[in-house]
Amino acid sequence: MSIVILNALPMAGSDRTAGEKIETAVVEALQDTLADCASQLAVFQLEKMLIKPCNSCGACAFKSPGRCVVADDMHKIMYAMAPASHLVMITPVRFGGYSATLKKAVDKFALLALPGYASYKGTMVHPARYGRKSLLGIGVAEKLPEEKAASFKRMVAHNAHNMQTDYSALIISPNHSAAGIVQQVQAAVKGGLKA
Amino acid sequence: MNVQKIILINGSPRQSGTSSSFANTMKTLAEQAGHEARIIHLYPFFNKPEAFDSLRESLQSCDAAALIAPLYADALPYPNLWIMEKLADGCGVALRGKRFFAVGQCGFPDATRLTPLLDACRYFSEETGMTWLGGLAYGGGAMINGARLETLGIKGKKIIRSFDMAMTAVLSGNPIPLESQELISVRIPGLMRLPMIWYLNRVVRKSAKENNNADYRRQAYLES
């Protein structure tokens, strides 16, 4: 049981303080609500990582099964994600979904799936390669219109469906207090994720 | 007739895949209607600030633009989002009033998977002041696998008819009609799902065999 956090918030410049505050608060909330897993918790600050785009080369299906042939930092993340029980994504909300900084990692989630097919809740999906992982998506935005917040939550729901897992999604403001963020994350974890 | 300039952006890393095939058909349809159309492949602009200016200039000089893209992990591929963020953050009012629409395609037959992709295109359009004319979602893009629509018989004809209706609407400044989406919606009866999965898994096993009996279930990232 372990947790992987993918943090796509800006961790440099004027936004650094908010990014650090949110990351710290999320870690504190997870340590409280998922105590069994939190002893093994890995945080990846994506802004600093070199993750090259997926070029749809298809090598990860049969030529190099389950392993991306591109040399970049995604391998470090994958070694942590493969055995993890929980995956947490923190991202600025862009166009009602994930920022490009988060998406550079998410595009390679195909590595978590097998090339075959299965039926899940009335749809076709790719079976999970490493078992199911609970998913928590945290969108960060100031004064986000409800429609965009709903789009963000739908985005997380689609990812969770494809990963055939339980999930929770929430929007937090960078202006919230650290204590407020801890409470929101705790509520989201208790409300939607399997411990 | 006022000749319009249409930019068709291929958001796929593949320059001869299904998104590219869709863009080619749309280009032909726009040209047949007497307009100028150009396909721009997006990936060469990724992470290249010097090339990025020429993309922005192309968009500034067009009347309408479309993003035609595959679905990666339930949304637009990362380089698409990277470029859209740069455009939204750095273009000011340069794109205001340009007509914009999108075509998303995914491997699974269920086109509702494309909702987040089309949402993102709509919000991008709103944030840059472009005029959103709607999106089309095509499920089953993997089965086309880059083939020219003109060679696909009845299936290809239906998609071309859908794109023709969409292009006619866009050239007139109107939203893409619902009928255009209905024409390309693939409906697979629930009873067919399990046989289809059985067949596709058979194809997967065969491909593995052809690739030196590849262990496609390998858990590479649990190995040290």
Mean of pLDDT of chain B: 94
What is the element string of chain A, with H for helices and E for strands? EHHEHEHEEEHEH
Pick out the low-confidence regions of chain B.
none
What is the share of helical residues of chain B? 40-55%
Query: Radius of gyration of chain B, Cα only, in angstroms?
Result: 19 Å
Give the number of helices of chain B: 8
Give the uncertain stretches of chain A in residue-range form: none
Average pLDDT of chain A works out at 94
Strand content of chain A: 15-25%
For the sheet with most strands of chain A, the description reads: 5 strands, parallel
Helix count of chain A equals 6
Major sheet of chain B: 5 strands, parallel
- The string of secondary-structure elements of chain B, in order, is EHEHEHEHEHHHH
**What is the global morphology of chain A?**
globular
* Class by alpha and beta content of chain B: alpha/beta
Based on CA atoms alone, the radius of gyration of chain A comes out at 16 Å
Pick out its properties.
heterodimer; A: 195 residues; alpha/beta; five-stranded parallel β-sheet; two-stranded antiparallel ribbon; 6 helices; 18% strand; globular; B: 224 residues; 8 helices; 47% helix
Structure description:
- The complex is a heterodimer of chains A (195) and B (224).
- The mean pLDDT of chain A is 94.
- Chain A is 36% helix and 18% strand.
- Chain A has helices spanning 16-33, 35-38, 74-81, 100-106, 146-163, 178-192, and strands spanning 3-7, 41-45, 86-92, 118-120, 123-125, 134-140, 167-172.
- In chain A, a hairpin with a 2-residue loop joins strand 4 and strand 5 (123-125).
- Chain A is of the alpha/beta class and 195 residues long.
- Chain B has 224 residues and is of the alpha/beta class.
- In chain B, 47% of the residues lie in helices and 16% in strands.
- Chain B is built from 8 helices and 5 strands; from the N terminus they run E-H-E-H-E-H-E-H-E-H-H-H-H.
- Chain B has a 5-stranded parallel beta sheet, sandwiched between helices.
- In chain B, helix 4 (115-128) links the parallel strand 4 (99-106) and strand 5.
- Chain B starts with a strand and ends in a 14-residue tail after the last helix.
- The mean pLDDT of chain B is 94.
- At the A-B interface, helix 3, helix 4, strand 5 and helix 5 of A face helix 3, helix 4 and helix 8 of B.
